[in-house]
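Backbone geometry tokens:
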Amino acid sequence: MSTKILVIDDDVEILFAMTAICEYKGWLSITATNVLEGVEKFKRYNPDLVLMDYHLPIVNGIEGVKKLRKINTKVPIIVLTVEEDQEVADDFILAGASDFALKPIKAPDIISRINVHLKMKDTITSSNIDDEYFKGISTETLRTIELYMDKNSNKYYSINEIAKGTGLAYQTVHRYLQHMETENKVQVDYKYGKVGRPQKRFKING
């Protein structure tokens, strides 16, 4: 059975591009132009992954994510946005989003992100791990970051390093590391450069 990707976006060019990408990858694309239509198609088709725009008519993407999470807490939801504001990213993750992809869409990037989350979803399903959201944190995404950092548990990682290594967006990794810091799951160090604020680096607690 083909992997089903639900794309919720009011931009016809994005819908066309994602349909073409899905066809190229052998995925079945399902499209909707607003949240209400997207919710109906989510219930009808039970997709394997959702791509949702932030700026949508009537109901915005954050409220859209909340609506989908009331139906299913496990399906990955990747937000499509031009925003790089961390506060916006935090709001989305608190609502239940899994990750982000910046517009304009680049095929290699979006394919990579979809593959990462489909693999994570399969791992969680096969291992019967409960993936309920708590504080906007998905256990599957958290586990992915922990496993990456645990490969070299003595190393301090930057957010960029973890994002590149896991395939997750910078904003996603930033939010999860904040959570891990609050839960005392990581140690924090500061790297001071010649210019600008010190860069945080993180080491997982053994």
